[in-house]
Amino acid sequence: MRSYLRPLSFLYDQVVGVKNSLFDRGVFGIYKAPVPVISIGNLTVGGTGKTPITDYCLKSLVADGKKVAVISRSYRADADSPCLVDVDHPFAARYFGDEPVLLAQANPDVRVYVGPSKWRTARYSTEVHKYDVLIVDDGFQHRRLHRDLNIVILDATESLSNYEVLPEGRARESWAGIQRADVLILSKCNLAPEDALKALEARLPKDKEVLYFGYEIQQCQNVKTGQVLKRSEIQGKKLFLVSAIARPDVFEKMMGEIGEVSKQSLHYRDHHQYTAQDVKNITEAFELSGADMLVTTGKDAVKLRHLFNDSSILWSTSLEVVEAGKKGRLHEIITQVLR
Prior knowledge:
It is a single chain. The chain is of the alpha/beta class. Helix 4 crosses helix 10 (298-304). 33% of the residues lie in helices and 22% in strands. The strands form two sheets. The chain has a nine-stranded mixed β-sheet, with helices on both faces. Strands 9, 10, 11, 12, 13, 14 and 15 form a seven-stranded mixed β-sheet that branches. It has two domains: 3-215 and 322-338, P-loop containing nucleotide triphosphate hydrolases (Rossmann fold), CATH 3.40.50.300; 219-318, Rossmann fold (3-Layer(aba) Sandwich), CATH 3.40.50. The chain contains eleven helices and 16 strands.
């Protein structure tokens, strides 16, 4: 733990606390959309596995025949006003953001909107189209937008010390903020040591419903050809990994359970915008490593696919979420909100 940063964390926490207090007292205005709003967020700065759970919820709602829109922020992207994500845009990931493009590609029946401000983007989305529900991606700290259900994801593999407020830890606000949540989801439960999971459970509020999810990688897909290799077909291969995600260690651990991960694998800063030079470096490092496969995450694949001269050497993984507790409970909770 970086205790020397504690004074800065104290100041950060005080500022966030004042902001939350002003919202609680009604000093700051809150926009209420004309349809139910469900927020899926977290306490820490990325890496909790939020996108797979958002995707899981979207597929469940579409299967129920609901018209759904996703509201996301154009984080480290070029979009400077509310707009609909166009997956056919030649530089879609750079313009709209990697996660929104990934969600839009994976859910063609869902419209994904991005913009600098989530509440303004929510207002824009309902002005141009009618929906049954809005899903706000990473919306827990965005208090300007009213939500009817607050889902907060806690990474079971995250060290408890990381829940200290920034910059000492990785938390955007203090642990007390969890009281605003309606439902808590513990993600990556199958990847966490039992003692770490129990320590996290012991810290949870007793009045909150807790759901458990595990994550699995069952296949890889070729970025160019679409060919799919099942887990059994990858086992034993030497894998060169490249990623720009908040928790590359989890990605490496999951792939290490399937094959041998190259020590030369490359990791970039979360949401890194790859360049042609990056791809040249990646290709050269992959060839020198002697690995059998060059593997990236789904979030990275939407940025890398157009930069490779021959993208057939690149394979993409996707996380599959598995309910570890009561099956269908998350769907049941969401359905109750929409009644």
